[in-house]
Amino acid sequence: MEGQITQISARPRAATAFLTLRDPSADVSLTLTCSSTLLRNMDPPLTDGSRVVVHGKPSFYVGRGTLSLRVDEIRAVGVGELLARIERLRQLLRAEGLFDPARKREPPFLPNRIGLVTGRASAAEHDVLSNARLRWPAVRFAVRNVAVQGSTAVPQILDALDELDRDPDVDVIVLARGGGSVEDLLAFSDEALCRAVSACSTPVVSAIGHEPDSPLLDHVADVRCSTPTGAGKRVVPDVAEETQRIHQFRDRARRALQGWVERERRWLDTVRSRPALADPIGPLERRAEQIDVLRERSRRAVLAEVSAEQHRLAATRSRLTALGPAATLTRGYAIVQRMSEHGPSVVRSVDDAGPGTRLRVRVSDGSVYAVVSPDREESGESQIAEEPRSAS
Description:
Layout (H helix, E strand, L loop, with lengths): L1 E8 L6 E7 L6 E7 H5 L10 E11 L4 E11 L2 H17 L18 E5 L4 H13 L5 E5 L7 H14 L5 E6 L13 H9 L4 E5 L7 H5 L2 E2 L3 H7 L4 H34 L2 H4 L2 H43 L1 H6 L4 E4 L6 E2 L11 E6 L2 E11 L5 E9 L2
Parallel strand pairs: 3-5, 6-7, 6-8, 8-9, 9-10
Antiparallel strand pairs: 1-2, 1-4, 2-3, 4-5, 11-12, 11-13, 13-14, 14-15
Keywords: Cytoplasm, Exonuclease, Hydrolase, Nuclease
Main location: cytoplasm
GO molecular function: exodeoxyribonuclease VII activity; nucleic acid binding
């Protein structure tokens, strides 16, 4: 069986030593018993957190319901084997797409709160907090102190990561630890931790060890910082730089506005210098004079036309008067009309007015009515008996 040693209990004169073998990725442990001589003869000596492979015989205690393992061989897992296992896990996670850059999310420019998972009172915690507060004094942190190496590191980191991921105020999570050996950083290459970081809905920043250190967490996290100091500078902007940038933008905006105002002012000066705006009343006065002249010409033309038409009308009236029957009647002539049921008709011949015919004789100042007498004189003219005169 393989696991991490978490507890070693070996009394100096006791023949039996007791150990606890723990799964680094799960909360599962098993009690080991071995001879004290086997434990003392190990080189290098076993310590808490050592990764080992043990061989033994299982024993089940019915009274207590516990399972233990009587060990007859303990072998430490070498660095080369650990690196080979990490490399195999690296290839597996890469094949599953956990290292794909398309999966990585950009942390917010100015997070509301930063979650920090690190060791208690560690240099990594101090570096992240101090550098972040130097850049942005108002930054807020939610710090979770956990074991960063040993058998309890992975379960504690997973619990802290889950708690911060569920906090709605946390916008980014930083996992920070100082440098160390491959065994010291082994927890940050754990498969369960890598998958948990990949499943987080909150962007995760990895700041493990120094520049040469490269645990698997660096490839799964959204952002990788070479040191905790770099993480403190990465998660928040620099207030001095942002203030300077604001001043630069303000100066650019002021210069742009001044340039626009100057261009518009020159344009207004150009427009104002045009004749239409330089002397707006002069053209109106000249147009008014032209309108007065045209109006007077129009009035004279209309009067002349009216006078000419009046003269033509008077001449036409005179000709009509001269040619009309009224003028002829004033010279002594009369118009004789025969009255019948069909209306009056002009008498043009003696034959048109037989005896008894009622006539209307129209003169210049009215009409008289007469009846043709049956008696005729030798001259052939009809005798007309006058009826009462009627002016019409």
